[in-house]
From TrEMBL:
GO terms for molecular function: adenylate cyclase activity. Residues 66-200 form the Guanylate cyclase domain. This is Adenylate cyclase. InterPro entries: A/G_cyclase, Adenylyl/Guanylyl_Cyclase_3/4, Nucleotide_cyclase. SMART domains: CYCc. One of its GO terms (biological process) is intracellular signal transduction.
Length: 246
């Protein structure tokens, strides 16, 4: 079940047990103090962003998390043959669809990387079912993109078809923290993040490709999902993954 907009910051409540209003009349004094809704998730506030100083002091914080990578397939060729304004509009539609699908499942959009998106589930909003929420977000994202008119192109037969979106999801323990020296950036790192990225690179347009660790927890969503062992660059041995479709 997708979450509805919260009247208080979920991150502040879960981590500090402090009810910070982010919607409604009670939020007005806080907005005057500069406390606003976070750009990472509209159910978080800017205090949550500064709360990451706790993470920064420790340099890295290891947590159980689920990572979702989504990529707009064929973007390079699309960009070469399309007006700049149309390409920007297409990217904005894709970003908006990603943000909506992730936010409704209590995830955060950590990065927009050109034609790709990195989303994190289970930090800073904690959920025991974060694996399931990530998969539901992935399926929802595929559906949203398929329905957006601006994310459609003309194929070789002159037919209109959706721009392909490839999604990869993996779960495990990863490190949250700052990277870089001259330019510091908050992100999630670890072998599980690399595996999620590689899985996404293998996903076909329209697919949500999930690892075996993920599928074991969500098999009821797609009980007859097809599995395959994929050789992945930089990963020792083939990796079993399951193909899910919205």
């Amino acid at each position: 079940m997708a979450t509805s907009p919260s009247r208080i910051c979920k991150g502040c409540w879960q981590h500090m047990h402090v009810p910070i209003p982010i919607r409604g009349p009670l939020s007005i004094p806080f907005r005057m103090l500069g406390i606003r809704i976070s750009h990472m998730n509209p159910n978080l506030c800017t205090i949550c962003e500064t709360m990451f100083t706790r993470v920064k002091r420790r340099k890295q914080l290891t947590i159980p998390a689920t990572v979702l990578f989504a990529d707009l397939r064929g973007y390079t060729s699309l960009a070469q043959g399309t007006e700049t304004g149309e390409v920007v509009g297409m990217l904005n539609e894709f970003y908006d669809a990603c943000a909506a699908a992730v936010w409704e499942r209590d995830g955060i959009v950590n990065k927009f990387i050109g034609d790709a998106v990195l989303a994190i589930f289970n930090f800073p909003i904690l959920r025991e079912d974060h694996v399931r929420q990530a998969v539901l977000a992935g399926l929802d994202l595929q559906q949203r993109c398929a329905e957006k008119k601006r994310l459609r192109v003309i194929d070789a037969h002159g037919e209109t078809c959706p721009v392909g979106i490839g999604i990869g999801i993996h779960t495990g323990f990863a490190s949250i923290g700052e990277v870089g020296t001259a330019y510091k950036d908050f992100t999630i790192i670890g072998s599980m993040v690399n595996l999620a990225s590689r899985i996404q690179g293998t996903a076909q347009p329209g697919e949500v490709l999930v690892t075996e660790e993920v599928y074991r927890q969500v098999s009821d969503l797609c009980p007859n999902a097809e599995s395959h062992a994929y050789p992945l660059k930089g990963i020792e041995g083939p990796v079993t993954a399951y193909r899910l479709r919205a």
